[in-house]
Each structure stands twice: as C-alpha cells, then as structure tokens.
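User: tokens in, sequence out, please.
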C-alpha cells in the first residue's frame, strides 16, 4: 500500500468513526424494509416526456396503471409516473384515484416531481408522504433529465410540498453516468433544510438507456459519502434505498453503509444484516416502502 493510499484509508476510518458516534444518538435498531405490501402505480402508464439518461422509461414498465388498482395484498402505494416537459408527474390530475385509494385505508407515497404551490396544495389532501428526487447541480439536471433547472427548482418544490406533507428527499449517488458530480452541493442544501428523513440511492446501469454501459461509483466512495451525510445530518433518519446495484456490489456496500450510520436499508444483503448485529443493533422488519417509515420515526 502506498503512503497516499494509507492516508486515505486512515481518513476514511476516522470519518466512519465520527459517523458512528453520531449514529449512537439514535435507537440501536436497523430498520429492514421489504416492501412487499407497497405497490407502485404509474398515472401515465409507460409514457414520459423526458427520456432520462438513467431510466429511459424502463422503470415505468414494472408499475401498475390506475385501472389495475387497488390490489388485494397492498396496504400502501407508491404513486408515480412519467414526467411532463417541466419535470412534473401529473398526480394532481388524478384526484379520483388518490381519493379512492386513501378512502380504502391505503398509505400513499407520492412522487410528483417539480410541482409548484398549486399542485402541492391539491396533493396535500391525499398523500401521507412525498418522495422528491433531490438533484441540485444544473449540469447533472441538464445532462440526465434534459431540463434547464437547478438546485433552486428542486428546493422550491421541496418547500412547496413541505407546506402540506412530510417530504423525503431522494439523493441518487453517481446519477451522472456513475460520476459523483453535484452530490456535495445537494448535501450542503440538505444540511440547511435538515429534513426528518433522507433516502440515498445509487446509480444502476440499466439496459436500453444512454447510461447502460456506465459503471456505478465504487462502494467505498458511496460509503464515504454516507458517512459525511451522517455527520452533516445528525438528526435526520438516513435510508439506503431500493435502487442500488445488486449482487456483489450490494454485498460490499451494505455493511459499509451500516458502519457509516444509516438507519434503514431496503432489502439488505446478509452481510449488511450481520454488520448491524455485530455492532449491537437489533433488526426491525417492515413491509412498506422505506419512505413511509417516516411515519414511525
């Protein structure tokens, strides 16, 4: 090992130590989310005006349409869909659907995109929580989404929605084709807002997209960022979400994420669970989307 590599390793170890000290201010529990009772719904079917570089509409194909709900086993729904040319998912045009699901007792996690005050006011009557993509670097927004919007647009959407509903920012690490570009600015803005919960995702190379052949950031790089987030957000509940590469990548990342101080992991690897137990954490299993865990914090 070179002297530079040794120093970097020592720096990472010190950062993780500091992050764990912050983590000790939370209950000694790792929440494990296995969201088998949350059903994703797309109000636009497979249609999306943006054709984003990391998705290209791929993830809409696995969602149900409004005509295919309710679902007997479901106790909650992630209500999402494709964006319009302004980065908005037109959930507010589907009040009948939202009202029907809410009246049947379902918990609703809404994914509305860059909405304004008027749309937020409508959604406030139906949702239990909002999942908001958190991308504040103008270059990343332009390259990935094709939108001429930056951090101010996402922050404005956060504030508009937070006037009516709990908002859970979702920060995808390596979104720009695996590059860590605007994540530190995104974290700095979260540090000001201090949301009750933040979900971290990791870029997944997806077949048929412009980024299909890109590589995700190294698990160690992701874990270092998570440790920095734990220190920067000492009162926020941090989750490692469902969107992250599978297989060996997950087996490497999950225990590092536990050590970095996350409070929840969606579908963790056995290695992640083992790390939690070795650190004295008990395991609490939940069957809803991780963002809905905000209601129990």
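Assistant: Sequence out:
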């Amino acid at each position: 090992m070179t002297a530079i590599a040794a120093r970097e390793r020592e720096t990472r170890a010190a950062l993780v130590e500091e992050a764990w000290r912050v983590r000790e201010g939370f209950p000694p529990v790792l929440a494990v989310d296995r969201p088998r009772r949350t059903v994703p719904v797309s109000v636009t079917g497979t249609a999306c005006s943006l054709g984003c570089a990391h998705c290209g509409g791929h993830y809409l194909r696995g969602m149900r349409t409004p005509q295919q709900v309710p679902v007997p086993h479901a106790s909650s729904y992630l209500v999402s869909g494709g964006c319009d040319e302004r980065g908005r998912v037109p959930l507010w045009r589907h009040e009948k659907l939202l009202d029907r699901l809410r009246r049947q007792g379902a918990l609703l996690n809404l994914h509305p995109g860059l909405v304004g005050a008027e749309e937020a006011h409508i959604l406030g009557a139906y949702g239990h929580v909002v999942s908001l993509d958190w991308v504040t670097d103008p270059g990343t927004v332009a390259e990935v989404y094709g939108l001429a919007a930056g951090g101010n647009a996402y922050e404005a959407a956060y504030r508009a929605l937070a006037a009516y509903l709990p908002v859970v920012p979702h920060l995808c690490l390596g979104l720009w084709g695996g590059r860590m570009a605007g994540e530190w600015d995104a974290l700095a803005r979260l540090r000001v807002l201090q949301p009750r919960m933040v979900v971290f995702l990791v870029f997944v190379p997806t077949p048929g997209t412009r980024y299909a052949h890109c590589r995700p950031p190294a698990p160690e790089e992701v874990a270092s960022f998570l440790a920095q987030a734990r220190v920067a957000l000492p009162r926020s509940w941090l989750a490692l979400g469902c969107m992250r590469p599978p297989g060996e990548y997950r087996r490497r990342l999950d225990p590092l994420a536990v050590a970095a101080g996350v409070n929840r992991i969606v579908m963790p690897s056995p290695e992640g669970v083992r790390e939690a137990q070795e650190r004295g954490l008990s395991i609490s299993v939940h069957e809803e989307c991780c963002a809905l865990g905000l209601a129990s914090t």
